[in-house]
Design a protein that fits this description.
The complex is a heterodimer of chains A (792) and B (346). Helices cover 62% and strands 12% of the residues of chain A. With 792 residues, chain A is α+β, with helices and mostly antiparallel strands. Chain A is elongated. In chain B, 3% of the residues lie in helices and 55% in strands. Classes of the chains: A alpha+beta (792), B mainly beta (346).
């Protein structure tokens, strides 16, 4: 009996291949979107773990030379002998690969990211001769150094025993020392042992982790969003599939198939379909990720100096979670449908519209839940601080809004219906409202997709606008020149000033300010700073005060973290403090900055001389040639502003390319959900359309009305999505971004972009509705007639 | 893979094998091997022997403060070679590591250090004697007059040692056999140090004095493959006699034992396998495993039948190579104090 029942259930799909396709495609697309995002996220994260292991020096305090870039081994040994638990690092480049040498004997646990293969294998010399890195690194180092391929090492980096690396780089000196967290009691102060070294606090170099984490926060948020969209789609696909088979089920029950068997067979069938759809989705997701991943890798490489392997591994986390999505979505939809089957009176009519007409009570519950969530979101919006609260707010907002959508649409349509004149228009609105419940899941998916699109694109565009004006401000000089020695710097400065040009030397030193690691800059206050720097907050004539050495300018990061604003005093050295004259926006930089005047900087750090100079000139090319001819500075040491700006902009363009691509995909998937809902509803709607047709409306006219309905609904959804998307953007910019990056992005509005999005949404709905409408136009009159002759 | 495991897997062939301390039985190709009838050359032999795979300078002390409260102290410098011989700079195949511990009746402090050979971070120089790793050092003008220093995040000590007797040699004139197959090491001790100094503990600094025992041992393959660990006793009886005895546990459940009886004037009597016996009386749950902390120790040839009990059962050295090491009290036919080391309790 089981086999017969299964055959009966399956025969439905044989007769309705389109529905089978819809079911599988819905499952596959939802899974694909989720697993694609997961794959990208997971792969990038795995690369970061490797990077953190290989490059995780940021967690440790470091000792670096005050002058030059190397410290002798003897200094390391004398520090150890004095009780400083430090471990040496040497870093350099072989070809285009960053090579890091460390001492596995004294390095902290987890350093290096090496797997079981050893840098120091028991051998004839005690130290293996080679490096460790990824396959790609090994290829890039071919002919330069032997590389043992190891997965745990970050891409673009080769690690090895310090002795080996020093030999390969042909060096004696160490780059820096990491200070281990556990230090013995009675350790003498650094000045007594190695006054030539400077302690660089750990946080200062932790920027990679911080920045990459916050970028991935965006992707994670997007992942959750796609999960939600996917669940909606799976749910609606399964629900509709059941709706269409109520008749079959009733017939089976009437023929004496026990309920137990029906449920068992249905579960088995759905499980098989979910697994098949999920598997298809995972394959699709993998393809999607591998198409997008080169961009992810490029984005992160460009932005943060971190590298992501351009290869995809089939990680169990993401394919399992993708499968879980398919199964959970199926199970959720199935449980409801099974409950209905269980309660269905054997001899009652199939009532195929029953599911779509889910009761008013359900709608009320949904409205209540939506209200609770939206109120929670409002409260969180007022008080939220930090990432977790930010994400909770996002979740409440999105789910609340999605649940509220059918209620709002229903009210709006009722309102319009009440005001419309003429029978056709009245019927149109009433029929639209009546269809709402059947389409609601697809419409919710569209709502989420559109609002995510609005939110993310607002954030990206706001970021871009801010960043471009920031670049204009910070990269005002037309030409940058880099020299090797302080003497060359002085000569360059004198030469340029002799030409009557405005020269902007860049003095900088890493320092601890207000207990936080920061960068202290010395600037030559001139027209450039006065004209092009925009302050977020400033006192009167800030640059005059800075020029006089009486005040400093700080960036927003420092102001926020140390809670020091205009008028507060910043301590720069023991007994030396200055009030803050202004706070500047500083985007894409995690560190605090303090800007001093050149003479004041020189009194604090007399040993620091500038090696980089910005020059204001009308003719950068001529100046380049002159500097090369007069001072012997190579062309390669000079960059013009346009190049830097373009490079910086490229980085950000690429950063959000992936997000943009995923956005478009979400919209596409939502459009597909609408198409499938319409297609599956189409047959059920025949009895409703037949009377209208019989009353004189042509099939062609009916088809056009169907199309119009889809567009109207899409536009309604878009109108709801607009405020939701803006709220989403606000949360991302004002809460999530502050928590993750330490600065607030000003929010800009882009009405043209939104209008275009509205158009896209309508277009997606139009495309989705086109096929069902076309089918309606071509429905044989006989089929419509059958509605009246009880032959259905 | 973290560096700790990394170290264990590669740098310390001593524990490279899965069987833990049985790894001391690992292959020793290319290394010099201890031979019978050694002729020691002092002070040179107080220094390092880089042609042998492993070596240690192992100091333990039973201490008391002015109030009669007992303390135990350990300072050990290990040398392990990835390959025989020495080379300058980073290519040196010598790896050093050291353990320091202080035991009170209630607490046990332990810490460790690691160092590369060849760059001066650690080493041993024979004369004037200097054994050091980082800021830790055991040094003095000669082997009889030494100072000792170690520090950790939660404790430190600074001690002075003065030898009151001669060096003593274990086994056959310092050739100490460790198994029936003939594995052996060179092994001598200075068990007659008087020691005094101060311990810096979280509760404050405390002046202490007592007796210390320094073991010197080097070899290339001291254990046979069939041995999984050892229980080692150094006991100082109140009558002035001393007893060094160890029991090597073999994987078949049998033991290989050896002992040295040290008279107050430093004359020694070596006892072959079977003469000395040690049997656990009580076990304690230590660091998640059962470790015997009360023993019955017998040397019938000297009418020794004593109970050896840990002063603090939790004297677990929770380090890269974990083991138990702590002060003990001796009661029974003889009274006294001493130190117990137990390895290979996985």
């Amino acid at each position: 009996m089981i086999r017969v029942s299964l055959a009966a259930l399956l025969s439905h799909w044989r007769r309705n291949l389109l529905q089978l396709f819809a079911l599988l495609a819905g499952l596959a697309l939802a899974t694909a979107l989720w697993s694609g995002v997961q794959a990208i996220n997971g792969e990038a994260r795995a690369s970061y773990d490797a990077a953190a292991a290989t490059l995780g020096e940021g967690r440790y305090d470091q000792l670096v030379p005050r002058q030059g870039d190397a410290l002798p081994v003897e200094t390391y040994v004398s520090l150890r002998r004095a009780g400083w638990r430090v471990t040496p690092i040497v870093e350099g480049r072989l070809g285009d690969v960053r090579v890091i040498g460390f001492d596995p004997v004294t390095a902290p646990a987890g350093f290096g990211g090496l797997e079981a293969t050893a840098a120091l294998a028991p051998g004839d010399t005690g130290a293996a001769k080679g490096l460790f890195g990824t396959a790609d690194t090994a290829r890039r180092l071919e002919g330069l150094a032997p590389v043992t391929v190891t997965r745990g090492v970050a891409p673009g980096v080769a690690v090895g025993d310090i002795g080996v690396v020093l030999g390969l780089l042909d060096r004696d000196g160490l780059s820096r020392l990491l200070v281990l967290p556990e230090q013995p009691i009675g350790r003498p102060p650094l000045e007594k042992v190695a006054p030539e070294l400077r302690l660089r606090a750990s946080q200062q170099t932790a920027d990679i982790a911080q920045l990459t984490d916050s970028f991935h926060l965006n992707l994670t948020a997007f992942g959750f969003l796609s999960f939600a969209v996917g669940l909606f789609i799976v749910h609606s696909t399964i629900g509709l599939a059941f709706e269409q088979r109520r008749g079959v089920v009733r017939t089976m029950r009437a023929l004496g198939v026990p309920l137990r068997v029906v449920i068992g067979v249905t579960c088995a069938e759905m499980l098989a379909l979910a697994l098949l759809g999920g598997a298809l989705g995972i394959v699709l997701g993998y393809a999607l990720a591998s198409v997008l991943l080169p961009d992810v890798a490029a984005t992160l490489r460009g932005l943060y100096g971190a590298q992501v392997s351009g290869t995809l591994a089939l990680r169990p986390e993401w394919w399992l979670s993708g499968m879980a999505l398919a199964l959970i979505g199926t199970a959720a939809a199935l449980s409801r449908s099974l409950w209905q089957i269980a309660r269905m009176p054997i001899l009652a009519s199939a009532r195929p519209r029953a599911w779509a007409m889910s009761g008013a009570a359900g709608l009320r519950g949904q409205a209540l839940a939506a209200l609770v969530l939206l109120v929670a979101a409002a409260i969180l919006g007022l008080v939220a601080e930090g990432l977790v609260a930010g994400f909770a707010l996002l979740a409440c907002l999105l789910i609340g809004a999605a649940l509220a959508l059918p209620v709002v649409l229903s009210r709006v349509l009722a309102l319009i219906e009440a005001r419309s004149h003429g029978p056709i228009l009245s019927w149109f609105w009433a029929d639209t409202r009546q269809q709402l419940s059947g389409l609601s899941l697809a419409l919710m998916a569209l709502l989420l997709a559109v609002s995510a699109n609005i939110g993310v694109s607002t954030m990206v565009s706001s970021f871009r606008l801010t960043f471009v004006s920031f670049l204009d401000q910070r990269l005002a000089p037309e030409l940058y020149v880099e020299v090797d020695t302080a003497a060359q710097g002085a000569a360059l400065d004198a030469y340029l000033r002799g030409q009557g040009l405005e020269v902007l030397p860049l003095y900088s030193v890493a320092e601890e300010v207000a207990g936080l690691p920061a960068q202290v800059f010395g600037v030559r206050v001139g027209p450039t700073y006065r004209d092009s720097w925009a302050f977020l907050d400033a006192g009167d004539a800030p640059w005059d005060a800075v020029a006089a050495g009486e005040a400093v300018v700080v960036n927003e990061q420092l102001a926020r973290r140390a809670d020091l604003w205009v008028g507060d005093r910043v301590t720069l050295a023991p007994g030396v403090s200055r009030p803050i004259a202004g706070v500047v926006g500083d985007y894409g930089n995690p560190r605090g900055q303090v800007v001093l005047s050149e003479p004041f900087f020189a009194t604090l750090y007399p040993e620091v001389r500038p090696l980089r100079f910005g020059v204001r000139t009308q003719d950068p090319d001529a100046l380049r040639r002159a500097i090369e001819a007069e001072l012997g500075v190579p062309q390669s040491a000079m960059t013009d502003q346009a190049v830097i700006k373009r490079a910086s902009l490229d980085v950000f363009e690429r950063t959000f390319l992936v997000t943009g691509a995923l956005n478009v995909l979400t919209l596409g998937v939502a459009g597909f959900a609408i198409l499938m809902s319409l297609l599956t509803l189409a047959d059920m709607r025949v009895p409703q359309l037949a009377p209208v047709w019989a009353l004189g409306l042509t099939r062609r006219r009916l088809g056009w009305l169907e199309l119009a309905r889809a567009v109207v609904l899409a536009l309604c959804v878009f109108l709801c999505a607009l405020p939701l998307g803006l709220a989403l953007a606000w949360v991302l910019l004002s809460i999530v971004n502050v928590a993750a990056f330490g600065w607030q992005l000003p929010m800009f509005l882009f009405p043209v972009d939104y209008a275009r999005l509205g158009l896209y949404a309508a277009l997606a709905a139009l495309v989705a509705a086109a096929w069902p409408a076309f089918r309606l136009m071509r429905t044989p009159a006989g089929q419509l007639l059958k509605v009246f002759s009880h032959e259905r | 893979m973290n560096v700790k495991a990394f170290l264990l897997a590669c740098l310390l062939p001593v524990v490279a094998q899965a069987q833990g301390f049985a790894g001391l039985g690992a292959e020793s190709e290319g290394f010099a091997m201890p031979a019978p009838d050694p002729v020691f050359d002092f002070p040179a032999d107080h220094g390092a022997h880089p042609d042998y795979r492993i070596e240690w300078w192992y100091l333990t002390a039973n201490l008391q403060d002015a109030d009669g409260r007992d303390y135990g102290l350990q300072w050990t410098l290990f040398r392990t070679a990835l390959a025989p011989g020495e080379a300058a700079g980073w290519t040196s195949p010598q790896v050093w590591f050291a353990h320091a511990a202080v035991t009170t009746p209630e607490r046990h402090f332990a810490t460790e250090r690691f160092a590369r050979g060849g760059i001066g971070q650690a080493g041993v120089q024979a004369a004037p004697f200097r054994a050091w790793i980082d800021e830790w050092a055991l040094q003095g003008p000669d082997f009889d007059t030494l100072t000792l220093r170690a520090s950790a995040p939660d404790f430190a000590y600074d001690m002075a040692l003065e030898a009151q007797g001669p060096l003593v040699f274990h086994g056959a004139d310092g050739f100490s056999v460790k198994s029936a197959e003939g594995q052996a090491s060179y092994y001598y001790s200075q068990p007659f140090y008087e020691i005094s100094g101060s311990l810096d503990l979280p509760e404050g600094s405390v002046a202490v004095r007592g007796q210390a025992w320094l073991d010197r041992e080097w070899s290339s393959q001291p254990l046979s493959r069939a041995q999984s660990g050892w229980d080692w006793f150094s006991l100082s009886f109140s009558g002035g006699d001393k007893l060094m005895g160890f029991r090597l546990r073999q994987t078949d459940g049998s033991f290989y034992t050896s002992a040295t009886w040290i008279a107050p004037d430093g004359t020694t009597t070596a006892y072959p396998d079977g003469a000395f016996s040690a049997a656990p009386l009580d076990e304690a749950q230590v660091a998640g495993r059962d470790v015997p902390v009360r023993w019955r120790v017998q040397l019938p040839a000297r009418d020794v039948d004593v109970t050896v009990a840990a002063m603090n059962a939790q004297a677990w050295m929770d380090l890269a190579i974990p083991y138990w090491e702590g002060p003990v009290e001796v009661t029974g036919s003889h009274d006294g104090r001493g130190y117990l080391e137990m390895t290979g309790y996985e």
